[in-house]
Structures are given as structure tokens and as C-alpha cells.
Amino acid sequence: MNAPWKAGGANGREPFAAYMCDDASLDVLRPVANELGWQTERCIRGGLRSAVQSLSIAASPNILMVDLSESGDPLNDINALAEVCEPGTVVLAVGQVNDVRLYRDLLASGIHDYLLKPLSPATLRDALSQAQTAFSTPKVVDATDEKRHISTAVIGTRGGVGASTLATSLAWMFSAEDKLSTALLDLDIHFGTGALTLDLEPGRGLTDAIDNPSRIDGLFIERAMIRANDNLAILSAEASMNAPLLTDGGAFVQLQEEFRQAFEMTVIDMPRSMLVNFPQLLAEVNVVVLVTEMSLASARDCIRLLSWVKSNAPHAQVIVAANKVQAQFAEITKADFEASIERKLTLLVPYDIKGSSNAAKLGQTFAHSNRASKAGAAIRELAHLVIGSADAAEVGTATKKTLLGKFDFKAMLPKRDKSSAPAKAKVKGKVSAGGKTGR
């Protein structure tokens, strides 16, 4: 393969340099670098900090590979590297930590890609070829490009399973902990609890939007939404019970469009009835969180909802979260429930009545007032999974081969209880996709 750049090229910089912590990685890298026409002497023993020291007194190469294996604080060290790199340098990082949040943070800091050890020639060849393409492609900034946005719909399989509790907690964590500008849309028009949970008055914003869809624009969003904190705004309603919902759903679609322009994250608390009446609501949703309880009725409706989402929103990543879990009082064991829905439960949130009471008394979301509890930790893991699933969906849509394709997401989830043997035949006799039960 002919090398597109040689040392001392038009920009006076080396085409490539790598700083690796171990000989095994260097042994894999050097032949690949040689194939690309680069000097193998530029593959140097040393990690990210060695790269910072060297580049502080010399021009950075067009493409730079750095090893994070010996870095105690990769993100802080990457920031130090950015201060000594020339503008336009394409940086690839190498490390041993298989973590979606680290990957996302590294990309946000400007890293082109992150490769896991042990390295393989094929992986390196592919990554370096993409880096070449990225360097040679003119950097064009299009002012019309939309910023990255994640839309999450939280749907309960039954009333009372705690979907609204999880929706408000997710919105609070995205805004307060992840520092993402977040919109919370409570689509339970008559009986929604989003504003109540956040100790706010719902206002008339949502009902005004339904009555006058043509008014919905950026200014309307700014005035109609109620602020819960610097990064979180909510749109909800407490419509009169004498006022039926009369809309074709266009207002909700328009709201979602405006949210994409104004926020980085949208969380939709979506009653099941809204899916039946307005299936178009999931057209732009990235992640669907199905919230269930360990009961026969929830198992039946979980099957139906999974089938519905597969047919109507195949692009959406689905997370099935069991909430208020009390194994000793459950109608169905975890193994039986998973056998009936023919997939694993993504997450188990333990029952915590004291935590719920505490949150209500404080006028805070469950996650906010119960950060140290087991249920709070599970909800925090759910927030991480939502963002990780959205990232994976984006990568899959773009058909770009990145680190996410190598992640074992099952290994990142909480350990599962394996004490109960599968009893698929038993549950299948009770629950079917058609909703029939047998005794």
C-alpha cells in the first residue's frame, strides 16, 4: 500500500508516531506501520505521558497513537496531550479498560477512536486506515447540522409498576450528574406525576401545545416548560377530567422535533395508551425502557409491548427493567419471567418503600433522595445503560466499526441470580403473546 504522506511532507510534520507501553503491542504495530509506508522507528516505547513530554518540544505527527494503560487519570492526561498537539492531529488511544463511559468521554474530548488490548494486525490496519481518511478529509462545519440528541421513552407494562418514578429519576440524573440539557415530557395528560415528583406546578404548557400545535416553536418551548434545575425542564399537564384528549398526535411530534433542537436528552414518560393511539411517537426515539413487575399480567403485557416495539420501532434499543423487585413475594420467578418473554431482564431494581416515602417527603426524585441505596444504584446503572444503548444504536446505524462493536454489554450488567432453573415450558403454558392464560 502506498503511503499518502511522507516525513517532511507539505505540512512539515511526521505522518505517524506511536507511544506504546509494552513490547507485545509494538511487535504487532511495527509491521502494520511498515505496510503503510511509515518509519517503524516512530513506534516508541512509552505511554501517554511520554508522548506529552516528547511533543512539548517537537511538532506532533499527522496521526498519533498513544497507550493509556499506565495512565491513572486518562481524561486528565488526554487534556494535557491536547495542549501540546498541533491542530488537526488525529489521535487514536489504546488501553485495557472495556468501559462504554470511558469510550464516550474519550470521544467527547476529541479522540478519533479507542482500541482495546491485545491488539491485532487487522484491527490496527483498519483503525489506521480510517485515521488516514479522517486526516485527509477536509473539515467542513455545517451550521445546519443538528447536535447529538438522545430520546428515551419510558413505558410501564402495567399501571403502578413505577415507570414514572424511573422516568423522573433518569431525567434528573441526566441533567444533574451527566450535565446534559434534558427535557422531561410527561404524556399522561390527565394524571401525570412528573411535575408533582419534582415539587413543581405543571402549568398550561402541554395543554396549550395540544390545543394550538401551530404555536410550537423554540420560543414557545422556552416559555412553556418549567425549570427543575439548570439543565432540566419539564412539560406536563393536569388537564381537567371533563376535557377529553382531542388531538391527532401532531403536537407531540412537533414537540419532540423542537426538543431535538433545544436539548441533548429527551425523556418521555409514555403511558401505554399513547402507543395505541399515536404509534408515530416512537419514530425518533433511540431507547425504549420497558418497566415491569414480576407478575403474570406484566409478563403478558411485556410480551405484547416487545412485539409492538419490534414491529413499529425496530430502530429503537429496548431495555427491560424489573422494578419494585421482591423475590420472596413475586408471582413469577425471574427465570420463569425471562423464559416467558424470551429474553433476559436487563436490570432489577429492588423494592424500597422507605426510599419512596423519603423522596415524596423531600419533593425530590427517587434517585436524588436515595443515592446511596441499592435501588438508587440500580437506577443509576439504568441511566448508564440508556446512554450506552443510544451510542451503540448510533454506531450501528452508521455501520462504523468502533470499540462499541467489541463490548460485551452482558458483562457490564449486574450479576444475575442463577439459583432458579429455567422453567420455560411452565410459563409458556400460562402466558402467550396473544394474552391468553391457562390454568
From TrEMBL:
<dbReference type="InterPro" id="IPR050625">
    <property type="entry name" value="ParA/MinD_ATPase"/>
</dbReference>
<dbReference type="InterPro" id="IPR011006">
    <property type="entry name" value="CheY-like_superfamily"/>
</dbReference>
<dbReference type="GO" id="GO:0016887">
    <property type="term" value="F:ATP hydrolysis activity"/>
</dbReference>
<feature type="modified residue" description="4-aspartylphosphate">
    <location>
        <position position="67"/>
    </location>
</feature>
<dbReference type="InterPro" id="IPR001789">
    <property type="entry name" value="Sig_transdc_resp-reg_receiver"/>
</dbReference>
<dbReference type="InterPro" id="IPR027417">
    <property type="entry name" value="P-loop_NTPase"/>
</dbReference>
<dbReference type="GO" id="GO:0005829">
    <property type="term" value="C:cytosol"/>
</dbReference>
<feature type="compositionally biased region" description="Low complexity">
    <location>
        <begin position="420"/>
        <end position="439"/>
    </location>
</feature>
<feature type="region of interest" description="Disordered">
    <location>
        <begin position="417"/>
        <end position="439"/>
    </location>
</feature>
<feature type="domain" description="Response regulatory">
    <location>
        <begin position="18"/>
        <end position="132"/>
    </location>
</feature>
<protein>
    <submittedName>
        <fullName>Pilus assembly protein CpaE</fullName>
    </submittedName>
</protein>
<dbReference type="GO" id="GO:0009898">
    <property type="term" value="C:cytoplasmic side of plasma membrane"/>
</dbReference>
<dbReference type="GO" id="GO:0005524">
    <property type="term" value="F:ATP binding"/>
</dbReference>
<dbReference type="GO" id="GO:0051782">
    <property type="term" value="P:negative regulation of cell division"/>
</dbReference>
<dbReference type="GO" id="GO:0000160">
    <property type="term" value="P:phosphorelay signal transduction system"/>
</dbReference>
<keyword id="KW-0067">ATP-binding</keyword>
<keyword id="KW-0547">Nucleotide-binding</keyword>
<keyword id="KW-0597">Phosphoprotein</keyword>
